[in-house]
Every structure is written in C-alpha cells, then in structure tokens.
Write a structure and sequence with these properties.
alpha/beta; six-stranded mixed beta sheet; four-stranded antiparallel beta sheet
Amino acid sequence: MGINFQKVGFYYYTPKKKQVVEYTLSNINLNIEESNEFIAIVGHTGSGKSTLVQLMNALLLPKTGEITIGNKVLTKKTKVEMKPIRKKIGLVFQFPEYQLFEQSVLKDIMFGPRNFGFSVEEANEQAIKMSQVVGLEESLLSRNPFSLSGGQMRKVAIAGILASNPEILIFDEPTVGLDPLAKNELMSLLKKLNDDGKTIIIITHDMEVVSKYCKRVIVMKEGEIAIDTTKDQLFKTEGLLEKYSLDYPILLTLLKKIKEQYNVDLDIYKYNTNDAYLELVRVFGDSYGK
C-alpha cells in the first residue's frame, strides 16, 4: 500500500479557545500507489504543496483526518515508530544543503542506510552504487559536501535517499537553479527510477517538466486539491490551464501556433521534440525540415 489521505486538515499554530482555525490544508482526500506513479504537484506559492509532501513523509502529522502510509495509520495523536515510514518514503528538499551535514560525501550518503540498520559494509556498498547511479564522480566521495556545486550537492542528497532504497521518492522543486544539462540529467534519472517501478512525486512550477515526464498532476489551490487528473486531461481540457493560472509548455504553444497559422489538422499534444517532429512530418510530408 502507498499513501492514502482521508479528510486531512493541517494548521501550523495552536489556536486559542473560540478562535477560528485557519487551515493550511483542508479536506485532503488522496491516494498514491506505492509503485509506477509519476506525479507532479503544482500550484501557486502558498497553496500548500510543501506542507502536503511533509505530511506524506510524516515530518508533519495531520490535525484532522488520517493518513495511511503502508500499514501505519497517522492521526493527530499518533504514537508510532517513524523510522519505517521514513525508510519507505524518501524526501529530497528544495535546498539540498539542508540535509547534508557529514564531513565527506561518502559518509553523508552512508548516513541513511546506517540509520536504518545497514552494516558499515552494506552502507558503504550502497553509497558507492548510488553515487554512480546519480552520476557523482568517484573523486568527489572524499570531499566535504559543502565544497561542491549546487548541482553536485543535489546529487549527493538524492544518492543519500536512494541508498536506503525507499519505495516512494518525493522531490521539492528538483530542477530549480539547475542549468539545462543538469536539469535533463536529473529528470532522466527520475524517469529511469520510475521506469524501474519507483513512484516519483515532484513539486514543481516547471510545466515543461510536467509535460515531458509526469503522468498525473495534482493542482493545489488555497490549501485544497483543486484537481487531480492525468497529464493529458490537464493539457487537453479547454481552459483548464488558464483557470488555475498554469503555463502552457513551450512545445505545445509552438505546435498550437503552427496549427492556427496553417489551418491544418495537427495534434498539438506532443510532449517531446521527437514526437512533435513526427507529427509535423505526418501533416506536412517527409520533406518537412529538409
């Protein structure tokens, strides 16, 4: 079983008697499978995205309702062992330096496995393996993580989470601050992890990332789930992006303009350049682009 929210509400302060509670999140009903999902959580700043994912990882507990993670039921008064939950649900923060603290990259990546009961030898093996998976050079393993670039620190943080082999991976704005090459490398890694069966959840404002990689989109608005739908449904439903002030991906915008300018039967809902090219060839002929 993955993650299930039933009528969940959350607020950050303890209200005084007779004071009206202002909920950060309210009436959240949500089910996430433990494998094969690739979910984007989108919405404007302050809509509740980060609070939602911290509840998924049990960094926060619900004030109302209940959350089931695996076979653990979390409520306001929950007293359960959190370690199995943290092992099952890996969370990578937007700013990786928040979760790095050891004197070397290798020790930082080993920390999670050691904390979850791996032997030193097992943790070391996992750390080296995951550093290779995320593309960290071996020469960096002895370095202090705070001497690395932002992109490299993010790889260390991801490797540290992967080393504990969680079933579900959550990333808060994973592509912010990355150059195009680093962004493509990271998203290709997440796609591979998803292809291998992991459930991936990302908070993002980047609709290019949503269109190219995600399968399901949860739109947050004012602390509630405004819509939970497939990627295709989000982009293909007339007026839906405008309703929630979400951007059209550049590729869809370009295909839409071509369709309107040439008045042709062009399927504009192509999410990568290869599929878009093949659609243009279908409409304009094999000589297109030669």
